[in-house]
Each structure stands twice: as C-alpha cells, then as structure tokens.
Amino acid sequence: MKNIRKRFAATASVATLGLAMTANAVSAESLEEVMERRGLSQQDLLAAAKTYTPTGGRDEFIVFSSGGQSGQIMVYGVPSMRILKYVSVFTPEPWQGYGFDEESKAILESGAVDGREVHWGDTHHPAITETAGEMDGEYLFINDKSAPRVGVVSLHDFETQQIVVNPILQSEHGGTFVTPNSEYVIEAAQYPGVLGRGFAPLSEFNEKFRGAVTYWKFDREAGRIDPSKSFSLELPPYSQDLSDAGKGVSMGWSFTNSFCAERYVGGIESGRPPFEAGCSQGDTDFLHVINWEKAAEVYESGKVTMINDHPVIMMDTAIEEGLVYLIAEPKSPHGVDVSPDGEYIIVGGKLDTQGSVYSFSKIKAAIDAGDFEGTDPYGIPIISMEKALHKQVPLGLGPLHTQYDSTPCVVYTSLYVDSQVVKWDYCEGKVLDKVSIHYNIGHLVAMEGESVSPDGKYLISLNKLAIDRFNPVGPLHPQNHQLIDISGDKMELLYDMPVPLGEPHYATAIAADKLQPLVRYRYGTNSRTGGKHPGAVRPGQERIERDGDHVKVYMTAIRSHFTPEIVEVNEGDTVEFIITNSERAEDETHGFAVSTYDVNLSLEPGKTATAKIVADKPGVFSFYCTEFCSALHLEMTGFLVVKPEGYVEEAAAEVSEGQAYTKDDFDKQMTTNLETQAVIDSVVAYITSHNYQDFPEVVALVEDAVDQLNFATEARTKAEELAAAEDWQNATLWAGQWWQYQVKAADIGLRAKTYLDENGAVKAE
Ligand code: RUQ
Ligand code: CUA
After folding, report:
1. For 347, how many CA atoms within 13 A lie in the half-sphere containing its CB?
2. 698-730: b (≥16 Cβ within 10 Å) or e
3. What angle do the packed helices 31-38 and 42-51 form, to 10 degrees?
4. SS3 706
5. Which listed residue, of 91, 480, 646, 671, carries a Cα 20 to 30 Å from 141's Cα?
6. Which residue's CA is minimally distant from atom 2 of ligand 1?
7. What distance in angstroms lies between residue 629's CA and the mean position of ligand 2's atoms?
8. What is the pLDDT of residues 265-295, one digit of tens each?
C-alpha cells in the first residue's frame, strides 16, 4: 500500500515535469494552443487535471455499479472513471466463460426460479461486506428485482460464486443492504404477492397478498449465504422499497420504506385510474422499523411458519414480540439512508419537497414507552411522525437518495425532478449548496458513503437520462455517470462518463487499497467453489479417459499449446475438456473454444474449468485459444476428430509430419538457441545484480521466467537425446520448442528489467 502511495507521488511529479517539458518543446503545441483549439476553459483544465490519470497510474477508489438489466456489475476507478471490468452475475457472458463452462453454468442454474431458468437480472443495489460498519472489500452482494434473487461475488477474484433465490417473494427491490458485520444481507419485497409465489384473486388483495423482508445469513468463513440459517418477516401488502441497516446506536435494527400503502391494485383497462394515480392518493406511506436482532432470536426459538421450506415470522408473531413498527413518511418515499453514527434516518419523498430526518433515539423512546398513535389494518403499531422526526428540510423537487460526507452532519441528496444534487446539513437543517446535473439523477454515491466513516472527496451522480451529452448512437442512449468533486465548500462537476450498460441503479465505492484481489489461482482451482478442482492435472499428467460414450480429456494449457492437441472421439460421444491453465505468470489467461460448439472458457493462471459438448455431428473441429496470449497464440490450437458412426480406421493412420528436417536444420536451430541463451543470461545478470527482491511484481516475473527456463531445459534434453539418436526430424522440432520457451523467458525478463529501470531499482552490493 505504501508502495502505491509512493508511486502516486512519483507519478505526480513526473507528470508536472512532463507538462513543463511539453510547453517548452519546439514543435509541440503549447497548453494555450490546445485550449484554444479544443475550446477549453481554465475550469475545464482544472477538472481534467483532477481526473486525468497518466499511463500506469492507479485510482484511489473503486466503484461497483449495478449494471441494471444487463445482470452484471460494472467496476470502474475514481477519479479516472475508467471502466475496469464487468462482472457477470445473472447473465451469461462469454469472455469470462460465465455460463459457457460447466462450473459457472452450475451457478446460473442455481438461480432458476421454480424450475424456470432466468438468463438476465434487473440488478439494483450492490453492497460490500462490512466489519464493524467499515467496508472490508471481501465480498459483494447484488439483488435482482425481476426474479427475487441475490448474487454473491468474491472480491478475491471478482467472480460470482453463488445465487440464492428468494423462496417466498414475487419481486424484490430493497436489497442488498448489509448489517454492520455482514451478519445478514437484507432483501425486501417490492410488489406484493402471495408469499411462496402462489395464487389468490386480486379481489382478496388486502387479505391474501403480502410483502416481506428476508434476512439472508452470510457465512463469512464459507463466503456464502447460508439459506438454512436465513429467515423472513411477513409484512403488509404495501410495496416495500429501499432498506438500510441500522448501525452504532441503531445496531440491530433495519429500516424499509414503502410506497402504495393505499394497497391499490390498478385496472386501467376497466376504467379504473392507473396505478400511478391510485398509489399516490394518500399523503403518507410507511417506514417499517424492524428489530432484526430480536427477530433472529424469535426465528431461533422456532416461532415461524414454513413457506416453501423457508421460515417466516408471521405478522401476528412479529407484533406480539415487538419486532416491527411503522412510522408515517411523506408521500411516495424512495431512499432511506442511515447516518454513520446510526442516529439519523433520512428519507426522501419522491412527491415531497423535503428531506425527512428521523431520530432513532426518538423512535426508540416511543417504542420503549409504548407510545403509539394507533395501528395499521394489520395491527402493527404506528409511531407518530411528529414524535419520531428530528427535522424536515425543504430541499427541492423529487428528493430520492442520500449519501453521507466525511464532514459530520453533511449529506448529499439527489433531486430527481430538479436534476440537481443538494448538499445540506441535516443536524441544523439547512441547505449548503446545489449543483445541476444532466439529467434526472437517481441514486448518487459518495466514497464509502454508506459506511460508519465516509471518505468524502468524490460523489457520482447516476443519471437516468443522457439526452444530448454524448455523440448520438441511436434512440437507445448510453447511461451517464457524472463525477462531482465534493472536497470543497462548493460542489464541482468534473466528468461525464457514458455507460454502455443499462440501467445502473446504485453503486458503492471503496478505497482501492482495501481490495486485495488474487493475481493467480492456487494450482487447479475451481473458481466457482474456491476449492481444488478434481479434474486438475499438472503438465505430464494429461490424459484422455473413456467410460462408455463419455470421454474426459484432462488437459493443460500453457503458452502456446494445449496438451493433448489431437482428441479423437466417436460420433455421439459426450466430451468433457477439463482444462487447467498451468501458467503462473500474471495476466497469462488462455481461452478455449471449439469451432461451431457453444463453448468458451476463460482460464486464468491456475484455474481449471470444463467445456462439455456432445459430439453429435461427425467432422474435424478445430479448438483454439481465444486470448492473444503470445506471439504464437494463433498456433495454440488442436483438433477434435469426431469419427462417423461405423468408421473403420485404415492401416498406417499416422498423422502427417509436415515438413521434413535434416541435421542442417537442427544445427541451425541450435545456433539460434545458444545465441538466445546469451541474451537471457545478460538479462538475468542485470536483474540479479539489482535489488529485485524488493519489488513483488518483479519477483513474480522472475518466478515465471524460471518456470519457462525449466521447460526450456526439458525441451533441450529431449532435443539432444533425439539428436544423439539421429532422429533429426523430432530433434529439430524439440529444439524449436526449446527456443519457444527461451523467447517467453526473455520476454518476461525484459519486462522485469524495464520495471526495475522505471521504478528506481538500485544495484545490490
Ligand atoms: S432505485 S433511483 Cu435504488 Cu432501484 Cu432509486
Ligand atoms: Cu493461449 Cu492464446
């Protein structure tokens, strides 16, 4: 981490130098000329300087944004706003092999709802695991609104590891939000349904339809949600909306909004007013205040009803045990956000112009005193709004979501209708600043803004429309994330980032140095379970096994070949290619595709994954690596030979040798190899004469180079043995293979040398 900081500083001073040099250079344009040519103001320049990240530079924060209907998560850096990755959760994605290898197919299949596979997701709210209310960067959760599901992503490798299907909800929205030690992942319903996804006529809406909130138990050790220790709470058929977990003084409680407390069921086709009218009749909806800590005890004690094998605390029990309370909140609220100390709960009412700040101590006092203004139609006690409110502050039109600043009492609220962000003080109740965005902001995210210690600095506005911001690309516009500098008194808009993935709802941002992702897998890892893959093999152990018409190919992949390269099967066989990437080198991913078959693997160093196909059509199919992994990447190929039924092999079915080689060819190759070795030796001498051990990046490169040189030695031995036997054909081919390994080692060595040069390595004494 210290290294990264040092690097930041170094990069900054180099950048300053570079600017001065450019300005003085004879032929280069001056800064003024560039400003003139591109029509840039001083302010633009300042904004550019605040976001521009020179080559090799890193970001201070990492944002995980919902990818909306793409069912993915988008990862990008702040302040550069450079997109780093899309992590597929609910949707197949071929680059990552997600949904194309057997291991990830199993994850996607586990997301089937009542037996129906759903190949997309409407992702809304990502949440990072927390320890004592601080984001810890270990796991990430995200919800799917359309099919009520939660995905679990490991931030060790940024891969989806689990999908759990809500056993009782029809749709959901108020997820995922984590409790301060990630004890539970909260998932609240959206549109009411019959719990368990059953049927009841709409005429019995009030009696038979329900909402609910589910508390998914997170098993940190396993890195998985444990459905067997999870439970739900039955709620009235108000459309539950966003949720947030209490913390600090409100630890053990959670808060869930609602809209349409009118319990309207629509019917525009028969002349009734539409939902939008029927659901905004009343002046207030309800904030649900839930004691989840106590609910967990009630669940443990067994006072639950099983619905679809899932324990549900029914409303009567919840009321009797004092688990749930309601407080009126202004017309059609949306966001509910708990302050870092847990004392305040800020609610934005879409149709109200105010931010409503509730006080947890006041809520608690009313509960403890049994001071209620009545009950709702289901008997849930209602706390009077006046008694629970700390303040209501006029903010503007359409306040939605709120994020907390590093400065106490300061928050930022999105104003959907006004297309603005308002900065305000919720302790004193006054507006501090406003900034306009383009257009129609939904969520906004501040750096670690939902943790107990927000970092301030930057805010991102997640806009619903882009309209005229970008070059037109047809009627479907990109999304627009706008970066805002919040380090000063006045908010400053810095950058517009078009997002070609929609529609992102919420995002969460964490300090980059809290993330510790892997560079490579432990050898032979099934990345979807994190465990050792039973089919992993090391070089030399590759084999093809047949069991009836089921063929298993235990394969390795390393620059730049698969072993084996020729796989012969019979028409109708089921073939499983279980492939281990036996590289240790950083970023040496291989792919695996079989032409015309619907498979593609992403094999990162150390990973084992399976491509399963049914060879139902005779023919000879090329398989090949889909990542440009080396100069001979195109040569990383092989044949799947599918023999027609009843095919009888001719005698002497030797494979073609290609070109014939002589002793001269062998000698020529050997001369090249010895020259190459001299180059390698000089690079090795350079590296080892410097303090390379102080640079973990270089140590990893050296390890990789040593691997390659070991392979080179093996190939050399084979070549020399074959030459001794005067088998010039194979001797020359193996000498060529030796050279391939040398080239890879030399390439890695040069990368290490460059790194040492650029990072101020010194000669070791
Ligand atoms: S939503 S724009 Cu969180 Cu799904 Cu508010
Ligand atoms: Cu391996 Cu291309």
Report:
1. 35
2. bebbbebbebbbebbebbbebbeebbeeebbbb
3. 110
4. helix
5. 480
6. 442
7. 4
8. 999 999 999 999 999 888 899 999 999 999 9
